[in-house]
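Would you mind writing out a protein's amino acid sequence and the numbers that encode its backbone to help me picture the idea?
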Amino acid sequence: MSASIIKARWIVTGAKDNNAPSIIENAALAHKDGVILEVGSSETVCAAYPDATVKNFPQHLIMPGLVNSHHHIGLTPLQLGAPDYALELWFAARLAMRKIDPYLDTLFSAFEMISSGVTTVQHIQGWALGGFDKVVASASGVLRAYEDIGMRVSYCYAVREQNRFVYEADEDFCRRLPEKQAKIMAKHFKQQTLVFDDFMQLFDVLTRNNQNARARIQLAPANLHWMTDEGLIAIQEKSSSCSVPMHMHLLETAYQKEYAYRRTGTTAVKHLEKLGLLGPHMTLGHGVWMTQEDIEICAGTGTCICHNCSSNFRLRSGSLPLMELQRLGMTVGMGMDEAGINDDRDMLQEMRMALTVHRVPGMDNDAVPTPTQVMRMATEHGALTSAFGNEIGRLDPGCRLDAVVLDYNSATYPFQDTDIAPLDALIYRAKTKDIHAVMVDGEVIFQERRFTHVNRDAVLAQIAEAMSVARDSDELERHWLREQVFPVVEAFYSDYLQNTEARTPYYRGSSKV
């Protein structure tokens, strides 16, 4: 295949630093076989490749494809019957969620992500019901959906060994219930249970079967409370031997901070450091309740963080001390978790959420995020939290050509003063309607509101038909069980935080409480 060229009014190759993008006006990019060959002025690049085919985007800005660094399911929990609660109660509410085919489910959220400029997703699957073969089938359905639509995916299946419902052993929670409810709850736990070796075998099977160059398989110890120390050490050894990264939920809520102290006598971060799990290969999802010392440990080890801004608000988890992490030079990606603030996967809006939420009172301009910083989180830094690393996330020679083409005129109509830099204007103003095209490996997978590989309307019709049937017997049983156990979960956590802040204070700005 010969080289091809795309031209644009502007091309943003990435960030020089958190305050300034690397942007070329009247630019062109040459690429071949999905790899960027050269980026520069239109005149220079076109002269270097005189025989290349040229595609022109005269009123557009091209930037690196966005990376959703933390994602789980397609139809949102709210759609499937679980309203927002504080995280620990929300887990209980999810007990009654409707079932949906994982292939169709994955396509649903892929439509939303791609149409907002996302080219790569960190998909962390979990909670599939049934034995090993059913879990393999479910995971394979997820991966097939991404392959069919053309999206890049860094996939992992979350390993859960224990404490599947509250922060105590499953059998201990069952003892809190009346006999009938306990029996049904135990059956539900059994449906979710794999032995540890099965999780490792799942990784091996998916890795061996994966023939999709846009998919990579990695590892995910789900969270400290869901894992034994022996399991954490074994996953670290697997990560090291297979040279794959890990993604782990951690310190999403104050309840998780307290659990860590009760179990280890210290903080979750210090415990992971002791076990040898921290480093550039590890991404910690959320990280809201870290202490100042925790943050410094993560920075010193090169551990990555994924900021899930909307999710933290919706589930009352708290707010990540983003600017302190940035001050220490940490890699911080951006994820939409189960869903964004509008119960969808609009990455443009998620970027504006992060940009706005951290605008603390005062006049210190260095204390608040910049549009370039947020773009970097959603591209380059997000890429570094995935199994693709620095192969994506920037539009530099040698990188894969994953890009989003934004219609500047559409986004800024009827007027935008030129004192505002073009990238800044789009970070603040662009909507999904302004996404002109999305490319992965140089291939257009979405253009002018149309997906090039999958018929969106047909898939949505399939979903609507599948979900129009009444709940089956399993769903009815779980719906009844949720009503029975929800008050028990509330009671379990009613005094859980009685002494936590006095023991392990978390980071609160410049005052280290």
Q: What stands out?
A: The domain at 4-64+397-456 is CATH 2.30.40.10 (Urease, subunit C; domain 1).
